[in-house]
Amino acid sequence: MVRGRKRHVVTDTVGLLLIVVVTAANADDGATAPRLLAGLPAASFPRLSVVWADRKYRNNKLDEWLAGQRRLRLEISSKPEGAIGFKPLKKRWAVEQTFGCMLRLRRLVRDLERLATTSAAMVKLSAIHRMVRRASPPRGRKKFRFKRPPKAAA
Q1: pTM of the entire structure?
Q2: What tens digit of pLDDT does each residue of 120-140 get?
Q3: Which residues does 4 contact at the CB level (< 8 Å), separation at least 6?
Q4: What is the CA radius of gyration of the chain?
Q5: CA 15, 57, 92: angle at the middle one, nearest 5?
Q6: How far is CA 97 from CA 1, 50, 101, in A?
Q7: Given this model, what pLDDT does residue 10 score?
Q8: Which residue ranges in the chain fall short of pLDDT 70?
Q9: Which H or E element spans position 28?
Q10: Rounded CA separation 13/17 (Å)
Q11: Are 5 and 102 within 8 A, CB to CB?
Q12: What is the pLDDT of residue 154?
């Protein structure tokens, strides 16, 4: 029995969640990616053509699946050779930010869910909370009111 879970997510360029798949921790990322990307139908996401991923998603099974369909193209972003320490990767910051914001929901910090579908529902709930926070202005702050400068005496 494998303890732990992996959360595979697809976000847009702003970091809002599009789809989530929760698997056991020993699941290979590249083998899980076709299941994840199959949940993005062309009818629902007509403008989606490029998917950015990290090196873990480079896999023969995924390459075969992508060759079978012509809509999506996978681009791998990785750290530059010889780079030491954390370096924010181009196009990957949105996903990393999404994972960071997910951990604000207490139930996602520890893996307490019995079913993977319940864990996926908690990830979606976290994404809804994030969208609502972005949509509504924070309380207590004064709204900026533009005031015209006084007219100069002629």
Answers
A1: 0.72
A2: 888 888 888 888 887 876 677
A3: 24, 25, 111
A4: 20
A5: 30
A6: 30, 19, 6
A7: 86
A8: 1-2, 137-138, 141, 154
A9: none
A10: 10
A11: no
A12: 65
Q: Using the structure block, give the residue that is written with the tokens 């309380």.
A: 139
According to DSSP, residue 49 is labeled -
Helix (H) or strand (E) holding 57: none
Say how far apart CA 107 and CA 103 lie, in whole Å. 8
Partners of residue 22 on adjacent β-strands: 7
The DSSP 8-state label assigned to residue 31 in this structure reads H
For residues 40 and 18, the answer to whether their CB atoms sit within 8 Å is yes
Give per-residue burial for 65-77: e unless 16+ CB within 10 Å, then b. Answer: bbeeeeeeebeee
Q: How far apart are CA 37 and CA 67, in angstroms?
A: 13
What's CA 23's distance to the chain center, in Å? 16
Q: How far apart are CA 108 and CA 79, in angstroms?
A: 27
How many angstroms separate the CA atoms of 53 and 2, rounded? 25
Residues 6+ apart with CB under 8 A from 107: 113, 122
Contacts of 46 (CB under 8 A, 6+ apart): none
